[in-house]
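> example.struct
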């Protein structure tokens, strides 16, 4: 898909993500969520 805005053209293409990269991203997301839950238990909103 290509958008032409004024004299600027922007092309958007779908990126293919390898299985290894997808698994890595999933693991990072899981660790991030776990750390966020731990942090929330330390800092209690009043």
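> example.seq
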């Amino acid at each position: 898909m290509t958008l032409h805005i004024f004299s600027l053209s922007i092309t958007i293409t779908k990126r293919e993500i390898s299985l290894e990269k997808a698994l890595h991203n999933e693991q990072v997301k899981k660790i991030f969520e776990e750390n966020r839950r731990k942090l929330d238990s330390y800092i209690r909103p009043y």
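> remarks
The beta strands are 2-5, 8-11.
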